[in-house]
Write a structure and sequence with these properties.
Blueprint: H1 2-5, H2 8-21, H3 23-27, H4 35-44, H5 48-55, H6 64-93, E1 108-114, H7 118-131, E2 135-137, E3 141-142, E4 147-154, H8 156-182, E5 184-191, E6 195-197, E7 205-208, E8 221-231, E9 241-251, E10 259-263, E11 269-271, E12 274-290, E13 296-301, E14 305-306, E15 313-319, E16 326-334, E17 337-340, E18 344-347, E19 356-364, E20 384-386, E21 396-400, E22 404-406, E23 413-429, H9 433-452, E24 456-465, E25 468-477, H10 484-495
Antiparallel strand pairs: 1-25, 2-4, 3-4, 4-24, 5-7, 5-23, 6-8, 8-9, 9-10, 11-12, 12-13, 12-23, 14-15, 15-16, 16-19, 17-18, 19-20, 19-21, 22-23, 24-25
Helix pairs in contact: 2-6, 6-8, 8-9
């Protein structure tokens, strides 16, 4: 079982399984990435949600089955390359193998005769091979001084490249493990004109690593000064976003001078090993709610979450301080209002040109005093009743910008003051990124060595007979390249004795 686990085939299968296991993490919303989308997905798929929950598909990279593949791959790789490192080390210390007795049986064979002594030819062969980056063994002598041979080998880095690639995979996995154990990832929504301080209480979602200490949070703060987005306003790609920029002011620590930064999608802010990413945006309508006694019970921005590419958004306004009964509003916001009988309310364009709020109004107990946690993006309706019109239909507020509508039964009024944008930020600290990057670099070096280093062996034998020296040379290519014949031809030309004037050396070649 150990041999099977540590075989190259098993390692490749596990690597493929790891890639396949990561696919659900890209398709299904993840708790560690976007808990809001997870909640929306669960509400939209009530039948599949419990099944996905049991399978761990909402947190793929923390699931038991993904961790099992991860750990088995680590064990397989380590068990695979550690013995090969020992074998490679012994091969590095071993001299090139002696020349076969019959060089003519090798794939590339050359021979010629010369008047030079065998010793001179062999010395020249050693120099030529050494100059072509071969490791040369000059100590192989046969039958005294009349017959001798030179053995040479090169391409040791090819196997080193294979080992480096395997090591790099382990290094990358270790880098990701360090980031998961000692880092964190959090998300927060910040409305234009408001700020954020890097503390646990201000995060909407916060997922720490197993060994992360909250005392290690960097004490920076930031404020969103402006948010600019450009849209395609004509052509087939009408409404497609072209550029996002959040202009912010930040301080690395309280009391330090403030700095300005233009935050873009592919241009995160780096603060004390923390990365601040711009991952989303939307609208936050400012709503003022007066209760039945005429008092302002709620006034401020409310996050409406985008539902489609046109930024038709859904949101909830909870008014627990209203008297004599608590109030709540639930509905949609369209930055550019549109309506048809078939579609109902929709947004014709993602930018603000004709903003409109369409809300249902509720009264009763919001359930905030029960102690049970509630999502700010959802409404518990068990103890709530909808306002009705005189003909018994649901009372709906369709508010244009600046408009005020009174609630039935003198329960108060709702005013649509203005609309601002919000940005969704992801703040993360991943201490293992340098390790993972180093593993990638090592892997690239290993692949380059595997692709371009050619392991070869070459032998030259010289034997003296009747004043003439027979020189035989042969080569063996262990990477199946096609230029070994050219290499042997070049070596043969370098070893031949220069021809005397008016004569040609007797030679005999065979390939």
């Amino acid at each position: 079982m150990w041999r099977q686990l540590t075989s190259m085939r098993t390692a490749l299968i596990l690597l493929l399984l790891l890639a396949l296991a990561a696919v659900p993490g890209s398709v299904v919303p993840q708790d560690r990435v976007d808990a809001i989308r997870v909640g929306q997905w669960k509400n939209a798929n009530p039948t599949l949600a419990p099944i996905y929950e049991k399978l761990g598909l909402f947190s793929v990279y923390n699931s038991v089955w993904f961790s099992a593949i991860y750990i088995l791959l680590m064990v397989s790789l380590v068990g695979c390359f550690v013995p090969r490192i020992r074998i490679y080390w012994r091969a590095l210390r071993t001299r090139p193998p002696r020349a076969p007795k019959n060089l003519a049986v090798l794939p590339e064979f050359r021979s010629f005769e010369t008047d030079e002594p065998a010793e001179i030819v062999l010395d020249r062969a050693g120099g030529v091979l050494h100059g072509r980056r071969y490791r040369v063994n000059m100590d192989d002598r046969e039958d005294g001084a009349t017959v001798g041979s030179v053995a040479a080998q090169r391409g040791y880095l090819r196997e080193a490249g294979n080992l480096l690639f395997h090591v790099s995979v382990v290094v990358v996995l270790v880098g990701f493990a360090i980031g998961s154990l000692y880092g964190f990832r959090g998300a927060v929504i910040v409305v234009k004109g408001q700020g954020f301080s890097n503390s646990l209480s201000q995060y909407d979602d916060f997922v720490p690593g197993s060994f992360f200490d909250s005392d290690d949070l960097a004490p920076f703060n930031l404020a969103i000064d402006d948010f600019n987005i450009d849209y395609q306003r004509n052509g087939p790609n009408l409404g497609m976003p072209l550029d996002f920029t959040a202009d912010l002011t930040y301080q690395e620590a309280p009391g330090e001078s403030a700095r300005n930064y233009a935050l873009k999608v592919n241009k995160p802010l780096q603060v004390d090993d923390n990365s601040v990413f711009l991952v989303g945006n939307g609208y936050a309508p400012y709503v003022t709610v007066r209760d039945g006694e005429g008092n302002v019970a709620y006034s401020g921005p409310t996050i409406f979450l985008p539902q489609d590419a046109t930024f038709l958004s859904f949101g909830v306004v909870k008014v627990p301080d209203a008297l004599p009964e608590q109030l709540a509003l639930e509905g949609s916001f369209a930055p550019t209002y549109g309506f048809t009988m078939e579609r109902g309310m929709f947004s014709a364009f993602p930018d603000v040109t004709d903003p409109r709020l369409s809300l249902l109004a509720y009264r009763g107990d919001l359930g905030l005093d029960d102690g049970a946690p509630q999502s700010v993006y959802g409404l518990e309706k068990d103890e709530l009743k909808r306002f009705k019109t005189e003909d018994g239909r649901d009372f709906r507020l369709d508010l244009s910008l600046g408009e005020t509508i009174k609630l039935p039964e003198n329960a108060g009024s709702v005013t649509f003051d203005r609309v601002e944008r919000f940005v969704r930020l992801q703040i993360s600290k991943t201490p293992g990124m340098g390790v993972a990057l180093g593993g990638v670099v090592i892997g690239l070096l290993g692949v380059l060595c595997s692709l371009f280093v050619r392991p070869r062996r070459a032998w030259v034998r010289a034997s003296e007979n009747d004043g003439r020296t027979l020189v035989e040379l042969a080569g063996l290519d262990r990477s199946s390249n096609d230029d070994l014949g050219d290499e042997m031809d070049l070596l043969a030309r370098s070893l031949r004795e220069p021809a005397a004037p008016g004569s040609e050396p007797q030679e005999r070649e065979q390939s």
